[in-house]
Amino acid sequence: xxxxxxxxxxxxxTALLSASYHFMMGRIIDDLAAAGHSDLSKTQLHLxxxxxxxxxxVGDLATRVQIPLQIVNNLVQMMTENxxxxxxxxxxxxxxxxxxxxxxxxxxxxxxxxxxxAVERDWATALGEESYESLRGRLRDLFDSTTHRQPAKTHK
Length: 156
Description:
With 156 residues, this protein is mainly alpha-helical. The chain has helices at 4-7, 13-34, 42-50, 58-65, 69-81, 103-127, 129-147; strands at 56-57, 85-88, 98-101.
């Protein structure tokens, strides 16, 4: 079956990457919901997947995900109330609050990883292993070139 977007050779890479991202996120959200984690938003999933294993400060997390500190703090608070994260206040500075993944968060992260791996297996099957690995390598190069640049300005 031919899709109109495939017929247009001028489809921008942004649209191609976005469609792939939304497909992946849809699968993850469906799998999480089936396992009782329907209360996580895409933004919360983004935070959950970017927290270091040993935890990190809210300020470092906000910088890593390039989301304003106040929004990250609100999301962390909601995720703590829903037992996905645990926090420890360090002084009066909101940025210094330590954030760790709680047991429920670890369970959700396992589902996220399993869902991502399932989608990637499907893509490898659809494209062929060699083409998939080539695509993965080129996307890694793009990712590396993007992350070595100055961070984008975040909205304050």
